[in-house]
Amino acid sequence: MKVIFLIVHILGVVMGAGAAFVTDAVFMGALKKRMFSKSDVDYISLASHLVWIGVIVIIVSGIALFALDPVKYLSSSKFMTKMIVVLVLVLNGAFFHFHHLKRLRAVADEPLISQSPFWNGAGTLFASGAISMVSWVGAVVLGVLKSLPFSLPVLTTVYFIVLAVAIGTALLVKDAKMKEGSLS
């Protein structure tokens, strides 16, 4: 049964992470052309639903895998860190799905000049993208590695430092993209 649960788990990761990565590419492409077309937003919405399907598959298959040896998993700092990363993914995904998609729909087919309503509060959207990318990569890396010789506090500290750097970088990108829009 473990092999079946593991295959299903991996398929969920492929679906969720793959849809998240492609969504980020569509987002960056829309920024490059300085407009989110209605089809861009529709695609991001569809991909968001695929991410959620992947997350549900990951959670259900993960519970099945956990149930096979809970003592082993609860004593693993790698596993506990991965659970924190997955929790961040779920919370960030909910915020994106219920907040950011609505904002993107409101600016569909409008140019992203500096006065665009898109830029009001866009920092959270860029931060959300950074959180998504770092967390999906982190979850995949933690899932692939057999074990790590580090404690839960060390692993989570590293994760949150990487998140902070990614968010800071995303906000710098947002500021640069907004300034580009003011030249239009």
Question: Can you offer a commentary on this structure?
Answer:
The chain has helices at residues 2-32, 38-68, 70-74, 77-106, 122-144, 152-182. By secondary structure, the protein is mainly α. The protein has one domain (2-182). The mean pLDDT is 91.
Shape category: elongated
Number of domains: 1
Low-confidence stretches: none
DSSP helix count?
6
Summed over residues and divided by their number, the pLDDT gives a mean of 91
- Largest sheet entry: none
Relative helix content = over 70%
Order of helices and strands: HHHHHH
The tally of strands reads 0
Structural class: mainly alpha
Kindly list the characteristics that best describe this protein.
184 residues; mainly alpha; elongated
